[in-house]
Amino acid sequence: MSPAPPPDPEVVVSTTGLTRRFGPKTAVDTVDLTITRGEIFGFLGPNGSGKTTMMRMLTGLLIPSEGRARVLGVDLPGKPEPLKQKIGYMTQSFSHYRDLTVTENLDFAARIYGLPRRRRKARIETLLQRYDLEAQAHQIAGSMSGGQRQKLALAAAVLHEPQLLFLDEPTSAVDPETRRQFWARLFDLVDGGTTIIVSTHFMDEAERCHRIAILETGIKRIEGAPPDLMAGLKANVIEVTGDQLRHAKEVLDADAAVLSSAQIGARLRVLVRKDQADPETHVAALLHDAGPVTCHRTRANLEDVFVAATGGGAKRPAEAAA
C-alpha cells in the first residue's frame, strides 16, 4: 500500500462530511470544503443557515458531531490549542470592552495573545495608524461610532498577525461606505498573505469574495467563484415592466417554467427554466391579459444564483444553480 500523499501547503482549510447537530436539529450537514491560501472565501446564507456554526467548528470552538476538518495543519476534532496563535476571529458583536479605551482594548488583546512588550507596543502603534484610530486612541470604546468600533475589532483580531482570519457578518451594523472601506482593508490583508473566511447575507459583499459557498439549512447548495456561478446559472433571467406587476407576478408564479419572480421597483425579475426555448416569448404569452408589458432578457446576478440554489426558488429543479 503506497503512503498517503503529503498535505498540499496551499490548502489552508479542508473538511470532509463536516456535520453539527444540536439535539434533533442539524445545523451543518455533511459539508465538504477546500480553501486555499491567500483567498477570501465567503459563506453566504440567511440567518440559521449554518454560517456561524461552520466558523465555530473551523476555529476549534465547537466539536463536530461527524466528519473532520484540517485547519492550518491541525486536525479537528482534536486539540485546537495550536490554532490559537495562527487564527483571528472577529464576531458579529465586535468583541471588545466598551468601558476601556481603544489603546487599552488593543493592549489587553495583545497580552492575551502573549505578545512581548516591545512587539505589543509596536503592533498597537502600527494598527492605530493603519486603521485611522490615532485620534480615538484614548477614547472609551463604548462612545465610538459603529464604523470606528468595527475598525477596533478588526485591529484586535489581527494584532498577532494571524495566517487565517475569520469574520462573522462583520459589516451587518455599518453603513455602505464603511463597508466599502472595510473590504479595502481586507484585500490589504490578503496582499500580505492572510487567508480570510467571511460569513455574510449581503449579495454585494459576497461578490467581493474570491469564492463562496451558499448555505441553506446547513447544506452546501453550491460553491464557486461568483462570476462563474452567475455565468453558469441554469436559468434565463427576464425583466418585465408594465402597469399591473402584482397581477403579473401571480400569473408567473403559477407557471411550471417559472422558477421565481420578484418585484424590484417598477419591474419584475423572473427566472425561467433553461429548457424553455424562447423565455421572452413564453413570459409575454403568459402575461397577455395583464395589460401592456415589455419583456427582455438580462444577465444573471448573484441574487439570481442564490434564489435558484435555495428555497427562494421553491420550484427550482435541483440543478438550477449548478
TrEMBL record:
Domain ABC transporter: 13-242
SUPFAM superfamilies hit by this protein: P-loop containing nucleoside triphosphate hydrolases
Database matches in Pfam families: ABC_tran (PF00005)
N-terminal signal peptide: none
Any GO MF annotation of the entry: ATP binding
SMART domains: AAA
Keywords: ATP-binding, Nucleotide-binding
The protein, known as: ABC transporter ATP-binding protein
Source organism of the structure: Meridianimarinicoccus marinus
